[in-house]
Design a protein that fits this description.
It is a multi-pass membrane protein. With about 170 residues, the chain is an all-alpha fold. Helix content is about 85%, strand content about 0%.
Length: about 170
């Protein structure tokens, strides 16, 4: 399971790096073209906006997998001496995050499906807006899945540590 998760994370990370590079390149070229008055890229702003949405919402998954969220940094600093409290807070945060993800998936999909059935397109790139908006619930659900995966790993690790200590003592 760990290999599959790591492989998926690497694929998403590579995709996000490519998106970031494309976004920077397009915005740079559009800026140079605008200020030199040689050419214009009218769709550059919309492209950059949609790339940023994809980077943020798909990046949530990577942040949850690599424990880069604010709560992950804050809780251990506040409760350094009590690993049980840290684990308990992590479980509570995971449950709340999962509830939020279910809510976002449910209502996000309602919005996405309405936009797809209405056939709304972005003004310049003519992309289906439902597809762009789908990045939000997909990113949040992936974040919750990987955050839950990480929390389950922590619980298993915490459960294994006392057994190892008992075996070493006995």
């Amino acid at each position: 399971m760990k290999k599959l998760v790591d492989c998926f994370a690497k694929v998403v990370e590579a995709f996000l790096v490519i998106l970031m590079a494309l976004m920077v390149l397009v915005v740079f070229l559009a800026t140079v073209g605008r200020y030199s008055q040689l050419f214009a890229i009218p769709w550059s702003e919309e492209f950059a906006r949609y790339c940023m949405v994809a980077i943020v919402y798909l990046g949530l998954m990577l942040a949850s997998l690599q424990e880069r969220h604010f709560i992950v940094e804050l809780v251990p600093l506040l409760f350094r001496k009590s690993p049980r409290i840290i684990l308990g807070v992590s479980v509570v945060v995971t449950i709340l995050l999962d509830v939020f993800a279910v809510f976002m998936a449910r209502y996000g999909w309602d919005i996405v499906s309405k936009m797809l059935t209405q056939g709304k397109l972005s003004p310049m790139l003519k992309l289906p807006l439902g597809g762009v908006y789908a990045l939000i619930p997909i990113g949040i659900v992936l974040m919750a899945v990987f955050y839950t995966y990480r929390t389950v790993q922590k619980i298993r690790t915490a459960g294994d540590a006392p057994q190892d200590e008992k075996e070493a003592a006995g």
